[in-house]
C-alpha cells in the first residue's frame, strides 16, 4: 500500500473512531420506551406517559401505570388525558399542563359545573389560582379528600353602573377576585359560579388557571371569551412512599443513576436524577459533561477540565501551579515560588526528622524504664527461678505491658470488674481469645518483692479446683500486674447480698461453698510446696464459677501492701447469731447445723492464735448433729456454750470461772 493511501486509511479510521466516541458520550435523548410514539402532533410524550402499546416485542404498554395512559387524536393531532387536552409534560418538574373548563352561571338553565374525579394527579398550588369574574358574583371550588368535602372560593361585588372604578387588566377583587389553591386538591367534585340573589348582573365565571394564562379585562364582564384555560397538575408514581422500597425494589420505578423523592407528596413518589446526571429518571439518567456545560463547569476553561462519571475536576497546564478552578486559577512557577517551596520542604523535613528523633528517644526512655521496673520488681529472680524448673514456660508467666494494655483497651474503665483497697481488677482479652482477670495494684512494699516473686512462682504451679489459677504477671511497671483466670459468676459477697439471689440458694449450697473455700486454704497452708498465707480472706475474695463452685482468689496481693498499711479491725459479737441470719434461712433441719458452723467460726475468730484451729482442722470438720451431747462438754472447754433463747439458740462466750 502506498504511503499516501495508508495515510488516508488512518485518517478515515481516526475520524470514524471519533464519531463512535462522540455518539457513545452524547446524552441519551430518547424519552420513550422502544417501539412507542414519542410525539403526538408537536407535543412530546415522555415516559412514564405513553400512548397504546409498543410496536416491538413483547408489545408491552408504552406507559408505566394506567393513570399515565394518553390518547392521540390523529385527526387533529390532539393529545388527550381522559377528555382533557394535554399541552405539555415535564418529567423533571413532574407536572402536566392541560386545558380545563370554565364554570359558567347565567341563569338556572344556562350554567355548568366542571369536575375532575381522578386522584392520581393534584392541582398544583404553586402554579395555579382560582378566579371568579363578574359583578355580584361568587365562585366555589369543592374538593373531596379522604371521603370529606372541603371548599374555598372568592366573591366580587360591583356597586352602580360606573365601571371606571374597576382596574382593567388586574384581578383586584372588584369585577375579578382570586385565591390560592389549598394543598392536596385531588378530586375536584365541582367548580361553581353563581350570582347573589336579586342580582341583575350578567353571567358569572369561575375557573382554575395557570399563573399568567389569564388577564382580566372589563369587557369580560359582558362577554367572557374562554371556554377552557390552561391548568397545571402535579403527578407522582405509584401509591407508596420511598421507605417501602428499601427492602423490595421489584416495583421501583427509578432507574440507573436516579433516586426516590417523596418530599411534599401525600400519595406516591417521584424519581430524580442523581447529581451530575441528566435525562429521564424513569428510563435511566446519563452523565452530564460538565466540561461542555457553562453552568456546571467550575474550571477556568474547558481546556482545563476533565469530565468524570457524575462529576469533573480541574487542572493547571504543565509548568503552572494551582487547581485550575475559577476564582483560584493557575499561576506560573518562578524563583520566589521555588524558594518558598524549598524552604517549606526543608522546614517539613526538619520537623519530621526532629519528631522522629524525639519519638525514638521517648521509645528508648520508656524501654529503659520498663527494664528498670522489671529488675526492681524481681524480674531477674523470676527468670532465674524459671530457668531451673523443668517444663516451665516463660510466656505463660511473664507478660509485657503492651500485651496487657491491648487486652484491656489501655485499662478502659468500662472493663473494671472489681476494686478495693489493694487495687483494681480489669477484664481482659488475650490474643488467643482467652478471657482473663488482670489485677492492677496501687502500692508496693519494697521489702516484700523477693517473697512476692517466690509466691508468684509457687501459685502459678498450683492446680486446685478451688483456687483461682494465677497465669502470670507483668513486671514492667512500678507496681506489678497479676494475671488470673477469669471466673464469671462474681464473688460470694455479691452472692450473699444481691437481692435476686437472697432466697434462691439453700443452706446446703452456702455450706458447700464455705467448705470448698476452707479446703483450698488448708491446701495452701499445709499441702503446697511452700506454705502460703492469704492474709485477706473475705467474701469479696472468694469467686464463684457458673456452677457456684468456690474459687479462692487474690493470693499474693497482700504481699504488695506494706506491713504498716493496716485496715480497721472489727470486734466479733456471736451472741446475736439468729438476729443476723437471713430471713427464712433457719428451719428445723438445719438449725443445729447452723449452730455447729457458728461455733466453728467463733473458734476461728479468737484473738489468741494458739486457740484458733488450723485450716486443715476447719476443712475436715463435719458437724455431726447426732453427737451433740458428747460435744457439749468440749464446747464448754473451748469457751462457748449453746443456750436456749425462746424458740432459738444462741452461742455465747463462757466466763473463765465456769
TrEMBL record:
Annotated spans, Disordered: 613-640
Main location: membrane
Localization terms from the record: Membrane
Reaction catalysis annotation: L-seryl-[protein] + ATP = O-phospho-L-seryl-[protein] + ADP + H(+); L-threonyl-[protein] + ATP = O-phospho-L-threonyl-[protein] + ADP + H(+)
Residues in EGF-like domain copies: 287-323
Keywords: ATP-binding, Disulfide bond, EGF-like domain, Glycoprotein, Kinase, Membrane, Nucleotide-binding, Serine/threonine-protein kinase, Signal, Transferase, Transmembrane, Transmembrane helix
PANTHER family according to UniProt: ASSOCIATED KINASE-LIKE PROTEIN, PUTATIVE-RELATED (PTHR27005:SF470), WALL-ASSOCIATED RECEPTOR KINASE-LIKE 21 (PTHR27005)
Name of the protein: Uncharacterized protein
Organism: Flemingia macrophylla
Amino acid at each position: 500500500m502506498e504511503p499516501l493511501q495508508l495515510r488516508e486509511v488512518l485518517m478515515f479510521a481516526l475520524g470514524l473512531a471519533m464519531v463512535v466516541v462522540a455518539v457513545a458520550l452524547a446524552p441519551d435523548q430518547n424519552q420513550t420506551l422502544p417501539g412507542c410514539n414519542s410525539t403526538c402532533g408537536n407535543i412530546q410524550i415522555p415516559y412514564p406517559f405513553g400512548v397504546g402499546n409498543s410496536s416491538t416485542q413483547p408489545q408491552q404498554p408504552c406507559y408505566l401505570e394506567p393513570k399515565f395512559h394518553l390518547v392521540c387524536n390523529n385527526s387533529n393531532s390532539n393529545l388527550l388525558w381522559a377528555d382533557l387536552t394535554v399541552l405539555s409534560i415535564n418529567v423533571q418538574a413532574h407536572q402536566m399542563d392541560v386545558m380545563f373548563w370554565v364554570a359558567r352561571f347565567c341563569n338556572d338553565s344556562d350554567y355548568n359545573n366542571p369536575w375532575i374525579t381522578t386522584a392520581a394527579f393534584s392541582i398544583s398550588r404553586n402554579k395555579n389560582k382560582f378566579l371568579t369574574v363578574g359583578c355580584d358574583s361568587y365562585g366555589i371550588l369543592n374538593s373531596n379528600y379522604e371521603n370529606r368535602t372541603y371548599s374555598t372560593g372568592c366573591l366580587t361585588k360591583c356597586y352602580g353602573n360606573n365601571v371606571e372604578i374597576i382596574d382593567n387588566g388586574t384581578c383586584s377583587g372588584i369585577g375579578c377576585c382570586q385565591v390560592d389553591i389549598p394543598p392536596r386538591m385531588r378530586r375536584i367534585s365541582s367548580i361553581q359560579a353563581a350570582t347573589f340573589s336579586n342580582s341583575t348582573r350578567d353571567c358569572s365565571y369561575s375557573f382554575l388557571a395557570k399563573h399568567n394564562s389569564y388577564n382580566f379585562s372589563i369587557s369580560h364582564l359582558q362577554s367572557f371569551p374562554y371556554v377552557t384555560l390552561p391548568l397545571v397538575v402535579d403527578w407522582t408514581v405509584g401509591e407508596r412512599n420511598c421507605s417501602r422500597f428499601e427492602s423490595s425494589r421489584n416495583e421501583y420505578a427509578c432507574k440507573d443513576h436516579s433516586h426516590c423523592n417523596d418530599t411534599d407528596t401525600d400519595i406516591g413518589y417521584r424519581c430524580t436524577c442523581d447529581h451530575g446526571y441528566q435525562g429521564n429518571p424513569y428510563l435511566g439518567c446519563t452523565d452530564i459533561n460538565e466540561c461542555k456545560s457553562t453552568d456546571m463547569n467550575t474550571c477556568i476553561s474547558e481546556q482545563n477540565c476533565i469530565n468524570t462519571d457524575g462529576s469533573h475536576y480541574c487542572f493547571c497546564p504543565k509548568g503552572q501551579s494551582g487547581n485550575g478552578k475559577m476564582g483560584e486559577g493557575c499561576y506560573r512557577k518562578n524563583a520566589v515560588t521555588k524558594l518558598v517551596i524549598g524552604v517549606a520542604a526543608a522546614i517539613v523535613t526538619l520537623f519530621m526528622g526532629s519528631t522522629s528523633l524525639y519519638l525514638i528517644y521517648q521509645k528508648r526512655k520508656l524501654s529503659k524504664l520498663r527494664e528498670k521496673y522489671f529488675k526492681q520488681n524481681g524480674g531477674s529472680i523470676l527468670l532465674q527461678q524459671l530457668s531451673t524448673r523443668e517444663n516451665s514456660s516463660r510466656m505463660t508467666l511473664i507478660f509485657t505491658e503492651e500485651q496487657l494494655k491491648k487486652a484491656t483497651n489501655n485499662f478502659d474503665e468500662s472493663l473494671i470488674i472489681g476494686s478495693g483497697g489493694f487495687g483494681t481488677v480489669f477484664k481482659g482479652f488475650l490474643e488467643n481469645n482467652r478471657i482473663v482477670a488482670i489485677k492492677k495494684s496501687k502500692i508496693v512494699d519494697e521489702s516484700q518483692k523477693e517473697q512476692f516473686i517466690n509466691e508468684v512462682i509457687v501459685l502459678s504451679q498450683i492446680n486446685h479446683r478451688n483456687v483461682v489459677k494465677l497465669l502470670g504477671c507483668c513486671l514492667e511497671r512500678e507496681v506489678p500486674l497479676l494475671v488470673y483466670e477469669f471466673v464469671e459468676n462474681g464473688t460470694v459477697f455479691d452472692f450473699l447480698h444481691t437481692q435476686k439471689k437472697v432466697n434462691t440458694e439453700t443452706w446446703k449450697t452456702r455450706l458447700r461453698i464455705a467448705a470448698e473455700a476452707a479446703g483450698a486454704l488448708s491446701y495452701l497452708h499445709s499441702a503446697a510446696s511452700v506454705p502460703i498465707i492469704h492474709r485477706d480472706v473475705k467474701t469479696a475474695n472468694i469467686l464463684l464459677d457458673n456452677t457456684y463452685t468456690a474459687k479462692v482468689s487474690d493470693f499474693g496481693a497482700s504481699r504488695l501492701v506494706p506491713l504498716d498499711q493496716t485496715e480497721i479491725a472489727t470486734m466479733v459479737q456471736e451472741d446475736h447469731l439468729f438476729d443476723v441470719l437471713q430471713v427464712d434461712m433457719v428451719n428445723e433441719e438445719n438449725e443445729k447445723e447452723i449452730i455447729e458452723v457458728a461455733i466453728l467460726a467463733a473458734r476461728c475468730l479468737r484473738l489468741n492464735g494458739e486457740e484458733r484451729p488450723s485450716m486443715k482442722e476447719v476443712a475436715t470438720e463435719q458437724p455431726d448433729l447426732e453427737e451433740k451431747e458428747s460435744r457439749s462438754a468440749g464446747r464448754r472447754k473451748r469457751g462457748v456454750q449453746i443456750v436456749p433463747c425462746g424458740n432459738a439458740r444462741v452461742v455465747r462466750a463462757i466466763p473463765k470461772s465456769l
